[in-house]
Amino acid sequence: MHLQRITMLNFRNLEPCTLELQGGFWAVLGDNGQGKSNFLEACALLCSGRSHRTEREREMARRGEDWFTVEGRLSRERRGPVDLAVRLTPEGRKELLANGSRAPSLGAYAGEASCVRFSSDDVETIRGEPSLRREFLNEAASLVSRGYIYDYSRFRRVLEQKSRALRDVREGLVPAGALDVWDAQLADYAGRVCARRERLVRELAPLAAELYARLSGGAEELAVSYAPDVPAPDSLEGWPAAVAKALAARRPEEVQRGIALTGPQRDELTVMIGGMEARAFASRGQCRTAALALRLAQARLVSRLTGEWPVLLMDDVFAELDATRRALLMEAASEAGQALAAAASEADLPRDDGGFAGRIRVSRGILSIGG
Predict the structure, then answer these.
(1) CA-CA distance, 117 to 97, in Å (whole number)?
(2) How many other C-beta atoms lie within 10 A of the C-beta of residue 64?
(3) Bridge partner list, 98
(4) Contact at 8 Å (CB) between 107 and 101?
(5) What is the enclosing helix (H) or strand (E) of 1?
(6) What does the alpha-carbon distance between residue 77 and residue 191 come to, in Å, rounded to a whole number?
(7) For 295, phi and psi rounded to 5 degrees?
(8) Chain centroid to CA 292: how far?
(9) Strand order in the sheet with 94-98
(10) What does the alpha-carbon distance between residue 270 and residue 11 come to, in Å, rounded to a whole number?
């Protein structure tokens, strides 16, 4: 899969522009603050229908404007080309279109194309708070399981409703039995979310371990495992019942405290390097390599399960790597149909031995293709 064409109108600081691209490894070059990350965000928005930087669409509109359009065409090996568009209207309505027709849901739109984002901030996925690893789980699961977006959004909605009900119970406005309807729905949707996460990590872990060994020269072993808040059942089918049991066990404490205390919102992804928990004991270099391995594993898993490599969007990930790891990362990324790698200068990228498809220059929001 690769971007053939992308048009951006009123998007962030970018000047109106259409780029025609081919597959392969593209360098996106420009000084800091010129618009490289905004361009990669536009590519991600086109592929997924969502921004990874904001949930407020108006923040993506050019300063002083109240609308934007990002549209383009992606080449797909199995299903042929697809024309996609994401628009924010002046009335504040977000529109997702595939081949000229409005997509019925975000999940339906996201099923048309896919991308995997790499960022220098990915190191915090390993070192940071559990919420960052849950975000990774959500991103990865949504790429390989179209139903995950629906199940997770329903889970979050029911969780919010239960949280309001818990406050009402604590204040004596309704009886504790009013929670039954929400816990029944939570057992269903949360159970599906947990099952999809467990399946994802089972398939992701060996790929990440292999890629970490490749990137680190076999210095240590990487082990990734799913650590659910709810005690895991014996089979994936047992997750709804396991969640229901956990909810029932925590009901008295939840009523007393007025907050939801168990479920996927408290899950964790455990990352071990050399038998030690990476979050607490790994060096920044080890965490950076582990983060790259997870992202590459995510992309490879998408390819294995869907038959299509996602577009790789790499934002300033080479600068902190030594020459050997840069070459290894580029070698691994070259398996994909297309990679767009942003950097401040050529010196921050792997050496070009004729392997670059081209260069995109960014200066004060103006994008151009050049040597």
Answers:
(1) 22
(2) 6
(3) 84, 101
(4) no
(5) none
(6) 34
(7) -65, -45
(8) 13
(9) 17-20, 2-9, 68-75, 82-88, 94-98, 101-102
(10) 37
Contact 362, 340 (CB under 8 A): no
Burial 160-170 (b: 16+ CB within 10 A, else e): eebeebbeebb
Handedness of CA 281, 285, 290, 295 (dihedral sign): positive
Q: Which residues pair with 337 in a beta bridge?
A: none
C-alpha separations of 14 from 18, 31, 363 in Å: 11, 14, 9
Contact 60, 88 (CB under 8 A): yes
**CB 97 within 8 Å of CB 265:** no
Q: Distance between CA atoms of 360 and 368, rounded to whole angstroms? A: 6
| Residue that is written with structure tokens 């650590």 in the block | 227
Whether 18 and 350 have beta carbons less than 8 Å apart is answered as: no
Buried b (16+ CB within 10 A) or exposed e, 199-224: ebbeebbebbbebbebbbeeebebbb
As a whole number of angstroms, the distance between CA 338 and CA 71 comes to: 18
Residue 344 in tokens: 């401040």
Do residues 88 and 94 lie in contact, with contact meaning Cβ atoms separated by under 8 Å? yes
> Which domains can be identified in the chain, with CATH numbers?
1-114+308-371 (3.40.50.300)
The pLDDT, as a whole number, for residue 370 is: 82
**Rg of the chain in Å (alpha carbons):** 22
This model's pTM is above 0.85: yes
In the structure encoding, which two tokens stand for residue 197, read together? 């996460």
- pLDDT at residue number 80: 94
Instruction: Count the residues in the chain.
Output: 371
Q: CA 189, CA 53: separation in Å to the nearest integer?
A: 26
10-residue averages of pLDDT along the chain (371 residues): 97 97 94 96 96 93 96 94 97 96 93 93 95 96 91 97 95 93 97 98 97 90 98 97 97 94 97 96 93 95 93 92 85 89 90 84 95 64
205 vs 203: CA distance, rounded Å:
6
